C-alpha cells in the first residue's frame, strides 16, 4: 500500500519535524504500508512558518491549489490513497471530488476517532485564528455537537520546533491547557496541528488526568489504510453525484490548470 502524505509545511525547512514524522509513521503504519512524504514547494512561504498564511481564509484557499494538484499527481502516479496531513484540511471536499482513490483528512480522521473514545472532544491549537476554522470544520463534518471547544495551547510553532530537543517544559504547558479544555467538557483531547501531535506522540503523551490525548497522525494513517482495504475488498468509494461530489472530466481539470498557468508548475506531465 502506498500513501501520499501531504503536509502544509515545506518539509525540507524543518529537519527535526521531518525526522520525527518519519519515525512516527514507521511506528504506526503497517509493515507493508509505504508513506511517501510531500510538503509544499520550496519558497511557498516567506519563512519556515506557514501560520502567517494559514490564518487567512483567502490565502489558504490559494495554497489549496497545491493540495489539489498533488492529489491529481498522487493518483496519476499510482498511489493508493491521498492523505492530507494538516488540521485546516485545505480543499478536502474539492479534492475528494477530483480523485477515485481514498482521500483522508487529518482533522476529520481525528474527530471521527475521538467520537469513539468519548462523548465530546476538544482541540488545542497554536495558531489562534484556526480555532474558528476548526469549529467550522467540525460542523461541516457533522460533528459540531460533539465539539467541547477549541483553545489556544499557550505556545507557538517555534516553541514546538525548539521542544524536539527538550520537550519537558512544553509538555507541562500542554497539560495545563488540556486541563482547561477538560473543564469545558472535553473527554478526548486532539492536539491540533501535526507538529504538536508528533512531538507528544513521540514522547508517549497519551492521556491527561484519565482523558485520552489522541494521536491524530496515528488515526489518520489507520483510516487511510482502512479506506484502501475497503476499496480493494468490495469497491467502496466516495460519492460521485451531486454538486459537491460528482467527479469532473480529468482532461477539463487539467485544461483549467493550464488556463490559469498552474499546470506546468504544479502538475506532473501526462
UniProtKB/TrEMBL annotation:
<dbReference type="InterPro" id="IPR052186">
    <property type="entry name" value="Hydantoin_racemase-like"/>
</dbReference>
<protein>
    <submittedName>
        <fullName>Racemase</fullName>
    </submittedName>
</protein>
<dbReference type="GO" id="GO:0047661">
    <property type="term" value="F:amino-acid racemase activity"/>
</dbReference>
<dbReference type="InterPro" id="IPR015942">
    <property type="entry name" value="Asp/Glu/hydantoin_racemase"/>
</dbReference>
<dbReference type="Pfam" id="PF01177">
    <property type="entry name" value="Asp_Glu_race"/>
</dbReference>
<dbReference type="InterPro" id="IPR053714">
    <property type="entry name" value="Iso_Racemase_Enz_sf"/>
</dbReference>
<comment type="similarity">
    <text>Belongs to the HyuE racemase family.</text>
</comment>
Amino acid at each position: 500500500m502506498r500513501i501520499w502524505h501531504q503536509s502544509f509545511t515545506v518539509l525540507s525547512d524543518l529537519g527535526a519535524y521531518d525526522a520525527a514524522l518519519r519515525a512516527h509513521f514507521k511506528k504506526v503504519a503497517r509493515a507493508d504500508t509505504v508513506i511517501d512524504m510531500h510538503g509544499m514547494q520550496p519558497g511557498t512561504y516567506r519563512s519556515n512558518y506557514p501560520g502567517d498564511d494559514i490564518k487567512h481564509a483567502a490565502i489558504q484557499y490559494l495554497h489549496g491549489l497545491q493540495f489539489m494538484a498533488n492529489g491529481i499527481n498522487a493518483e496519476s502516479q499510482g498511489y493508493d490513497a491521498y492523505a492530507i496531513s494538516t488540521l485546516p484540511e485545505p480543499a478536502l471536499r474539492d479534492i475528494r471530488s477530483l480523485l477515485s482513490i481514498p482521500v483522508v483528512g487529518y482533522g476529520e480522521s481525528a474527530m471521527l476517532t475521538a467520537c469513539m473514545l468519548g462523548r465530546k472532544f476538544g482541540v488545542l491549537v497554536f495558531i489562534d485564528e484556526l480555532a474558528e476554522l476548526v469549529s467550522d470544520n467540525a460542523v461541516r463534518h457533522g460533528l459540531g455537537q460533539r465539539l467541547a471547544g477549541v483553545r489556544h495551547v499557550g505556545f507557538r510553532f517555534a516553541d514546538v520546533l525548539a521542544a524536539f530537543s527538550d520537550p519537558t517544559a512544553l509538555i507541562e504547558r500542554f497539560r495545563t491547557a488540556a486541563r482547561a479544555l477538560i473543564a469545558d467538557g472535553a473527554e478526548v483531547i486532539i492536539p491540533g496541528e501535526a507538529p504538536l501531535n508528533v512531538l507528544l506522540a513521540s514522547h508517549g503523551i497519551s492521556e491527561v488526568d484519565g482523558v485520552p490525548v489522541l494521536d491524530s497522525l496515528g488515526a489518520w494513517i489507520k483510516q487511510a489504510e482502512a479506506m484502501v482495504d475497503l476499496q480493494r475488498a468490495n469497491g467502496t468509494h466516495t460519492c460521485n453525484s451531486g454538486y459537491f461530489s460528482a467527479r469532473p472530466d480529468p482532461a477539463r481539470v487539467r485544461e483549467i490548470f493550464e488556463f490559469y498557468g498552474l499546470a506546468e508548475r504544479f502538475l506532473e506531465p501526462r
